[in-house]
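Changelog-adjacent note: as of this version, every example in the card shows the full chain rather than a window. The one below runs 221 residues end to end.
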Amino acid sequence: MIKVLLVDDQAMVREGFGALLRAQPDMLVVGDAPDGLAGVTAAREHGPDVVLMDIRMPRLDGLEATRRILDVAKGLHRPKVLILTTFDLDDYVFEALRAGASGFLLKDAPAAELVNAVRVVAAGEALLSPSVTRRLIEDYTGRGRADPGKRVVLNGLTPRETDVLRLVARGLSNQEIAAELVLAEQTVKTHVSRVLAKLSLRDRAQAVVFAYEAGLVTPGN
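Full-length structure tokens:
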């Protein structure tokens, strides 16, 4: 059973998403909160597997709430944070990914997409909408150069692991990467796990951020 916590300052959003998720046989809505501060408290109390987190809220925004939830959970049960946003380009979403969020989804996404998103992040995968991610990365990388320190760390990867990271950053699934590199899907999973371990990253979302910050990939390539 996937335990879900809803954090959004709009009551209608919480009620609507809550009703949808409660109808799923493998999900349990353990609580909801009207702002980030209450969300941090609720996460400590309920130990959710997935937190659906709005970005722009009173008292504490979703970025700081995400950081606090994941920092407090270090060494304990760490929930996955799925960022919900009304806008297809939200300056805070990229920062939320850097803070440890496992992905993001537009609030106007179809119901089936929301349900699938919860299952995807609960399973430990990243959920990154390709079109929104591309615009966010373009916006971010347009502001500065690659981080040379992260570039050096990439030297610890094998050529094959570097190839896999590059394709992960382009948004390809394990199956698509396997087809691209002519590898078994299980082999790709092994490479992804090794990349995350070597770079001290928690999941694919952070791998995407790292790849762009290191300059391994750039918008459009």
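Structural remarks: Residues 166 and 217 are 6 Å apart (CA to CA).
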